[in-house]
């Protein structure tokens, strides 16, 4: 039996992973799905622009929704994103985004 790998992100399988949320509002499910996909993008060291493009292309996620969820995550997890951007900047010899370097 051959297993084929796909680079396409399957929203349906991700929605099924959130079995606790089956009875919740579909909008909440979509936000959680986008949050999960953003977290996967972060594993590949993507920035906001790369994440927006990837989710729009491969998961058919509206860029406005991706940006809104990204900003929510940034507000809730400021310390993580500061460290994330500083680490990526160090790895790639760039300076972190201006909004991250502020105290």
Question: Brief description of this entry?
Answer:
The chain has 103 residues and is an all-alpha fold. It has 6 helices and no strands. The relative contact order is 0.10.
Structural class: mainly alpha
Number of helices: 6
Mean pLDDT: 75
Summarize the biggest pleated sheet: none
Total beta strands: 0
* Beta-strand proportion: under 5%
What is the ordering of alpha helices and beta strands?
A: HHHHHH
Low-confidence stretches: 1-5
State the share of residues found in helices, binned by percent. Answer: 55-70%
Specify the overall morphology: globular
Cα distance spanning the termini? 54 Å
Assembly category: single chain
Rg, rounded, reads: 15 Å
Describe the protein in words.
The structure is a single chain. Helices cover 67% and strands 0% of the residues. The chain has 103 residues and is an all-alpha fold. The model is unreliable at 1-5 (pLDDT under 50).
Give the SSE map.
Layout: H1 11-17, H2 26-43, H3 48-58, H4 63-76, H5 78-92, H6 98-101
Attribute tags:
6 helices, 67% helix, 103 residues, mainly alpha
């Amino acid at each position: 039996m051959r297993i084929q790998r796909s680079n396409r992100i399957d929203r349906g399988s991700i929605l099924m992973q959130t079995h606790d949320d089956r009875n919740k509002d579909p909008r909440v499910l979509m936000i959680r799905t986008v949050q999960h996909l953003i977290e996967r993008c972060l594993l590949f060291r993507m920035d906001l622009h790369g994440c927006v493009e990837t989710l729009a292309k491969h998961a058919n996620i509206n860029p406005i929704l991706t940006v809104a969820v990204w900003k929510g995550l940034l507000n809730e997890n400021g310390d993580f994103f500061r460290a994330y951007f500083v680490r990526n900047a160090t790895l790639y010899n760039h300076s972190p985004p201006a909004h991250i370097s502020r105290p």
